[in-house]
Amino acid sequence: xxxxxVPVTKEGATAATLLGNAGVRICLTACYDHKQALIAGSMGVxxxxxxxxxMTDNGKDGLEECKKMDGIVKGLGxxxxxxxxxxxxxxxxxxxxxxx
Length: 100
Description:
100 residues; alpha/beta; 5 helices; 49% helix; globular
């Protein structure tokens, strides 16, 4: 029942690979760009955790980035799940909830 959070960095991907090979469940975290979903999906980690609010704070459309991540993971045929963090309001939560 334990999932280990590892940052989506070069070093984190290396560590996640080693941990995953040992049977450890992984969540790639601190995700700020939809392209990072390519890493998570291709590695087959259990979760990727984008920080929606922080992306928005930095001038990105955090909601759109999360939607793109979902499309990438689905397009890869990956079982990776998207665990959206840093949700700051009910409207954003509702918009995420109606996604496929």
